[in-house]
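This entry is listed below:
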Amino acid sequence: MPDSDIRLLALDGGGVRGLSSLMILRSLMAAVDPDNPPKPCDYFDMIGGTSTGGLIAVMLGRLRMSVDDCIAAYISLSNDVFQKKSHRVKINGKLQGRFDSTALERAIKQILKDTYHDENVLLKDASSTCKVFVCATSKQTSDAEFVDGALGMNNPVFALWNQAQDVWGDRLRSSLRCLVSIGTGVPALSPVGCDALGILLTLKELAMETERTAELFRQHNVFLDNDGRYFRFNVAHGLENVGLEDSNKQAEIGAATRRYIQTQDVLKQMTALTDALARRQC
């Protein structure tokens, strides 16, 4: 992919709600070519994700899976990866992760097995046209937990931008065609516990973190927004009662995401993005 035509994709973490981001991405790819939806790896030069978003990034970018195949794999793995784990708060008040990092490792190995890939394929990235990176843990936690929905970079858009700058340098600003950021929906705003000082930690902060990050990135890179090169998608309503580990609520996730995609504002945004994606310079 030429440096004059750079496309970036950021995927939030969100447990089982990652299915929502995949459905949004499927609609985008279908809009590019309804008869033969392309693979994201053929249109995006770099895909980055946090935790479960990183798992999706690996499947789409490194393993070059179609969105439909990725959805099927994501669903089949959901019962293993998205298991309930009680919130724990350390004595220093730092919220630990919801998911064990070993579950992510098992999930990736299972995907490699199911898609007939050698485990070493993850190390063979130098020649890949679609670059991938994963933000696996929060900066606020020092334990080896698979952080999803906890404090930290649940929205990896800044990390994606920094990685892209490392790769393309000063050319990035002028050569970027689009940066697409996809969320996993807004969860319920309920308390999760207290730290040693009695300060209440709530999921409201966790829910708002991704959108604050999205808006902060927009403000810091206003030229991208003004030029119509920054796109943010995130289901605002309908996923409030879907927890990170509720793998039995796939139908609810699908229904809410379809309603979101069919709204006029989102359809308009997708049309503009489809034009940017379709004009791939070969």
Notes: DSSP finds ten helices and nine strands in the chain. The chain has one domain: 6-83+101-137+153-278. The first helix runs from residue 18 to 32. The domain at 6-83+101-137+153-278 is CATH 3.40.1090.10 (Cytosolic phospholipase A2 catalytic domain).
